[in-house]
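Sequence in, structure out.
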Amino acid sequence: MTAVFYRGAGVGTYWHQHDGRLTGFTAHNPTGGRDLAALIGHIRAGTTFSAFISLTRSYGVAFDYAMAGRKRATKTKPAYVYEIKISNPLPAGLVVIDPVNHIASEFSDPINNRSYQHDGDQNFLLGIINPTAMRVHLKRQCRQPEPAQGVRRPPNLSHELETLVRALRDAELLAVASIPSTCVTNRFEIY
């Protein structure tokens, strides 16, 4: 079985200037931490100095990331979307992590107070998915039961929930440390 993944490279970024088809992909800090905190930092905060390499199952997501490069993509200076094919069994040394599964497994006790659950309304996740256009859903006051209604506050947003939602939004998986060039099968020019 072979799975197809994509990775966007915007104009002016490292992987725009270095061809992943020739070199493969190496994380900025391949020997860095691989624990839950490092995984959350990579996805939630966009930390690029980590042991992780972001991949997506969605060409559209990779396209969007590539178009958000440091400079505007043009016909003469296009952005790139790399196509990466990974077979099972994995190539020697390659590790791929599903961050959603990884985070959810850390919170298998639904009674534990530390959780990825939220206490906002049904539209709260829209604010996490698109905090620019849907910010109103992040700021809406958390409803409390009558009569006291508690202290007015926005809903709880944990780092774990924010990471889960972003990973789902981006159909994101993480490779650890490096992806060999033999897995990088194509590079599409986009503008």
